[in-house]
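Dear all,

This email documents one entry for the complex benchmark we are building for the journal club exercise. For each entry we list the sequence lines for every component of the assembly. Then comes the predicted three-dimensional structure of the complex as a token string, followed by one or two observations. Please use this as the template for your own entries, and keep the labels exactly as they appear.
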Amino acid sequence: MQPLTKLLEAALFAAARPVALDELLGLDPGATEEEVRAALSELQGVYHAGGHGVEVVELAEGFQILTRRECAEAIAQAQLVQRPRRLSVAAMETLAIIGYRQPVGRAEIEEIRGVAVDGVLRLLQERGLIDVVGRGEGLGRPLLYGTTLAFLELLGLKSLSELPRLEDLSVALKPLADQAVGE
Amino acid sequence: MQPLTKLLEAALFAAARPVALDELLGLDPGATEEEVRAALSELQGVYHAGGHGVEVVELAEGFQILTRRECAEAIAQAQLVQRPRRLSVAAMETLAIIGYRQPVGRAEIEEIRGVAVDGVLRLLQERGLIDVVGRGEGLGRPLLYGTTLAFLELLGLKSLSELPRLEDLSVALKPLADQAVGE
Amino acid sequence: MALPTAADRPFVIQLEEFSGPLDLLLHLIREQEIEITDIPIGRIADQFLAAIHVLRLNQAAEYLEMAAYLLRIKILMLLPQPLDAEEWEDPRAELVRRLLEYEQIREVVDWMLRRAGERADRFPRGVVPEPPELLLPPAEVSVDQLLQAAERLVELLPARVMHRVVPRPLDTEGATQRIQEVLRERERVELAELLGERPTITDIISVLIALLELARLGAVGLSQADGFGPILITRATAHEAA
């Protein structure tokens, strides 16, 4: 492989999106468009001749390395790509707060966790674990979040009442109503 | 390339993370561990002999395809990929202590570093580099932290045993009691 | 001293130049090629004080704590040593132990930074935006993990509260007054009524503390007919109050 071809391979691999020819020219200021095109076809040739599991594909937006179609099934079967991912600690904590305090607004969650939670809320919402369930009273009528059926499914619970009781924990996470010693 | 090697290449390519040998075995139910290992080294050999821009690296208890170091500068310059941000020395000190002393509680880390570490611990936890691995014995049953696979990935280590042995450091801290303290 | 001079730069930036008081101390020691095991403590203590002043680190508790610690050792070193040298314990021993331990960590950190730098020069395949239906692999969560997360949060709370400025401190005096006023007019009142429509957490705690204190003094009686039932507060009779 020529040095430029090697660079191209690394760049296309790392970018993981279709890369336009213009962008590829940025890899080597000394290289002409013809040289880059030649390198691209050398790479295509190497992959083809060597019987590789990947190939260089030209798409509308540029060039991209993709796995060959005939490998897709085995990869899916081995569940290498779509693996269940553990939720991050941040996501877990946020989910716990919403689980116990719902309906609850962002400000309250941030107060408890001590960090901004926009990103985490979006992630949990995209995963369908929480949803907007209403709007609060205060300024700007903030969105209130609650957990979804998918949340219960995920934990294998029939209903929210099956969540472990937080009696042993500090008052902070209990709904306020429960805090005034059993009235 | 053998069919299994081709499949392996496609799988490692698609996974975009270190994949454990066990997981790779799932690609072909008929393949033995030796065959998968042989395929891995065939792939390593092909990349090496062909002067490719990528290579198969063993890290974080698995295998991953990464671009070669010498391509980094050009790829970053062409703005195709950004280098990850470096961790601060404070974060690295905390990671080092956890790396060697795990499971370890906050108090011990603070004693060694001489500063409060709440913020750093949270950051490292949110980045998935450490996690709570248990609770200590003492008062309040303090949380104990340990490093994760992402920590190994960060440093490109196969396993924790690749951390430098403390005896090999120039400041060898043997058992604390033995230290000759300039009397 | 080749310390970064920057009296005009903000405090936060200065904090980032050293990862802690031990880092600064080690910097001073290395700069002057001093043996850690035989630190001229008087000189180093003075330099440390001067440095945190210049770097404006003297606003950070940890640096002040170290400064005080160094001064204490300095004083101990000035005390006359006992004639029997065997009995004399070097006041610097603990500091030396900590510095050596810290120096070792720093050596590992240097190694880790180098490794991380090398690793950062090898790019993994970027994470591809997958088609929407594949975007979200099933998450792995168990009830246990959720409870652990909740516990962790609780763990973090008291630590944070220490640094927070509480705008509405507990008002047990006010609560005591209110309870006494109500009981002057009525013989009994339910706790829920006393707390009103939407009590804040500080209201609740203030009232509870006031009640417990009044009950201890025998000024009020507390009763609860059945478990989790309403809590009744009654005016204590003169006899009881005595």
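Observations: Residues 5-14, 128-137, 158-166 of chain C have pLDDT under 50 and may be disordered. Chain C touches chain A through 46 residues (CB under 8 Å).
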